[in-house]
Design a protein that fits this description.
- This protein is an all-alpha fold.
- The chain is built from 2 helices and no strands.
- It has helices at 5-31, 37-71.
């Protein structure tokens, strides 16, 4: 498996998109009157996923900055 900054950030962005989609679906179900606990769990899981993927992007940016500082 190739781990590069581009692939890492691309994977994290895809994770952000999936989390957003999950939130939109669950929110629409809840707004439509759904009382299914799975919708609440989906919102919570999507929030955690979003934070984790955002942290990956932040860490990748910090790592790249550090490497650039070292080589400068």
């Amino acid at each position: 498996m190739d781990i590069t900054p581009t692939s890492t950030i691309s994977s994290a962005i895809e994770g952000l998109k999936r989390a957003q989609s999950t939130v939109e679906d669950a929110a629409q179900n809840i707004a439509g009157g759904s009382l299914d606990p799975e919708d609440i769990v989906s919102l919570s899981t999507a929030a955690i996923s979003f934070k984790a993927n955002a942290a990956v992007i932040k860490t990748e940016n910090e790592t790249t900055k550090s490497l650039l500082d070292i080589t400068a």
